[in-house]
Structure formats: structure tokens, C-alpha cells
Amino acid sequence: MNEKSHARSIALAAIVAMVVALPAGGAEPDSASASVSPLGRTIATQGTAKGIPACISCHGANGEGNAAAGFPRLAGLSAPYIEAQLAAFADGTRENSIMQPFAKIMSLDGREAVAQYFSSLPAPKAIGTRDAADASPDNTGAWLATRGRWQQDLPACVQCHGPGGAGVGSVFPPLAGQPAAYIEAQLNAWKNGKRAPGPLALMPAIASKLSDADIHAVAQYYAQPANP
Fold first, then answer.
1. Distant-in-sequence, close-in-space partners of 8: CB < 8 Å, separation ≥ 6
2. pLDDT of residue 20
3. Cα 49 to Cα 63: distance, rounded to the nearest angstrom
4. Which of 18, 52, 191, 208 is deepest in the core (most CB within 10 A)?
5. What is the DSSP letter of 108?
């Protein structure tokens, strides 16, 4: 190997290492933690005088979600994604009887701060990873998540939401570790036209091709504890 080729190989290895080290949301945990404001922590853990309750009362002390109640995990989601959802609740383009009233009275600064706070929290360790090699046609949830159903032009969930459902960038959120009831509710909302289409207007078309049994299977697949 000549000197120029050797230098190019080192540079490529460095770039790959940097990409692998980044979490799916695109920001390193240390830098995210450093940007958390006291306002975000206060809203999340104590609520506000305007009547917004502490976020953790529904979403868990560490933003891990509440599986029994179907409240989603917020820990580790990207800040822009959380901000976008709060904005959608506030303007009514995303319907939810619990979140809409609170989002409407939360200031823009408050939305940004609380989004940064939850983005800085680590995802629950129990999420682990999911092995696509284990998928088989008789395991509907795993198969749809990792293989899709191409005879219906139905892509695999991992094509947008990343390997193991870890999320990709700021618009395709993590699915891994979200409560099954929450995932089911969102897929049904898209299927029934109750939630805005989202990035590239993909989700209504995808959800429309899923049966109730498919939706339940996919939700259970991503909600279950994974390989450590």
C-alpha cells in the first residue's frame, strides 16, 4: 500500500468510527446533556404554575414510558422529533385528549427545553437489540418489522426506523421499547386518518395495508424485551 492509499484508509476508518459512535438520533449523549436547561428539567420533573403536570408523572421517572397505560417513552428520542410532536399537539394536527391541552399552553421555549431534556436521557437498557436472523414467516411481527411484505408493496419497518427499531435521524423515531398499546394506537390513528401523515406521507399508506392482527404483532415485537 502506497502512502496516499494508507492515508485514505486511515481517514475512512476514522469517519466510520465517528458514524458508528453516534446514536440513532444523531447527537452524542454528552453534548446533549450539556445543553439541557433548568427549564426543561423543571417542566419534566415538576410541571409548571400554568397547570402543566410533570411529564414524568405519565412518561416515567427516567422518560422510560408506561407500558400499562400506553404512554410512550421519551428518553433518547431526538429533540427535534419531540418538539415537532408538541407543536402538532398544540396546533391540533395530532390529536390526543391528554397532550393537546398541555401543549397549547406550553411556551415555545418550554417545548424546546423539555425536548432537549428527554433527548439527553439514555434509552432504557432493557431495550437491547433485535436479531433479524430470527425472523420467519410464521412470526408476523418480526417478519413485517425486518422483511416487510413486498407482494403488497409494504416495506419493512427497519427501512425507515433503522436496525432493531433504534430510530434514524430526527424524523424517524425509535420503535424499540415503546409500549405495545402506544404503537398500536398510532398505527390505528394513521389507518383511520386520525394522525398527520408524517415524513414523506408514508405512514397512512403503510398502516392501511396492515390488518388488526398485523398491527398487534408488530407492536408486540417492538415492545418486547430484546437480546442484551
1. none
2. 33
3. 21
4. 191
5. H
Domains 29-120 and 125-223 share a fold: yes
pLDDT tens column, 12-68: 333 233 333 334 443 333 344 455 789 999 999 999 999 999 999 999 999 999 999
Domain segments of the chain: what residues?
29-120, 125-223
- The mean pLDDT value for 194-202 works out to 91
| Domain 125-223, CATH | 1.10.760.10
Q: Is residue 56 within 8 Å of residue 63, measured between CB atoms?
A: yes
CATH 1.10.760.10 corresponds to the domain 29-120: yes
pLDDT above 70 covers a percentage of the chain that reads 79
One-letter identity of residue 60: G
Residue 64 identity (one-letter amino acid): E
CA gap 113, 79 in Å, rounded: 9
